[in-house]
């Protein structure tokens, strides 16, 4: 595995005392890495250091094996800043040409790549229009197109979908997955935890400038051993019977919600494997109860995020 981003004790502390402090992080080639944190945690500051726009106060870091700001690395990086503004008197075609020339692309390659990235971000047929008339979502698509133009090996995206509608977010998720499948490394700053759950393989959580946790999304979302059963025909007397029959299996059963008048209940059972869920389901049927739903409770990134950041992790407004 090749390490694309590596930081050791990387810090950028502003005069206010805020910023990024002592971050140790590693991102491997081909990873879609989610970088999370409350407002003001330091995510944008961290990325600006990685792309060579901010000088660290201390620590070390390498991107693509080269020191921060090295021109050879910057040529292989794509970056979409969080707050960007293009020259709004230009058309999107002109913005792309301008970026291509900054990247020293020859005219033929630039024209070909511009067509590809415009199609990738879904702006076909609109690129002759002036940016002034673009919606926020279209501007964000254009920003993504500019970041992709030089066919970067590593892409740093600072909230690329914040202005997009649900359809646009879906398109960006698909695009990022496709780019990852093609081998691109993607570093994604975002507040959209559901998107991270769906597409990222690893995450790190920054709060108040320091890393609070990092790991694989799969591990964080690993289902708990608790299964939920929604049942009809329930009465409280069934609980003792269920506990008695299930005692030898060490299955713990709790009623978390019930309504005597409507005869329904929600049970939570602590189970070790799926076969026990099937067994319990059969027991409930034998008691003459109707089982409407059965599913394992899942961790969510949101609860992980909140548990690690509340109440001190959020920037005071
Ligand atoms: N150029 C600067 N000078 C002084 N302080 C700064 C500067 N840039 C950022 N900060 C401060 O550093 C802290 C981290 O800011 P940063 O923009 O990196 O956070 P963030 O995690 O990206 O926030 P958000 O999710 O709101 O975009 C904030 O307290 C911010 O006010």
From TrEMBL:
Which Pfam family, an example, fits this chain? ABC_tran
- Please state every residue range assigned to the domain named ABC transporter: 5-233
Mind telling me which SUPFAM superfamilies this protein's record contains?
A: P-loop containing nucleoside triphosphate hydrolases
Protein's UniProt keywords contain Hydrolase: no
Keyword Nucleotide-binding assigned? yes
Q: Which UniProt keywords apply?
A: ATP-binding, Nucleotide-binding, Transport
Mind telling me what this protein is named?
ABC transporter ATP-binding protein
Give the matching SMART domains.
Answer: AAA
Q: Which family does it belong to?
A: Belongs to the ABC transporter superfamily.
Q: What is the lineage of its organism?
A: Bacteria, Bacillati, Bacillota, Bacilli, Bacillales
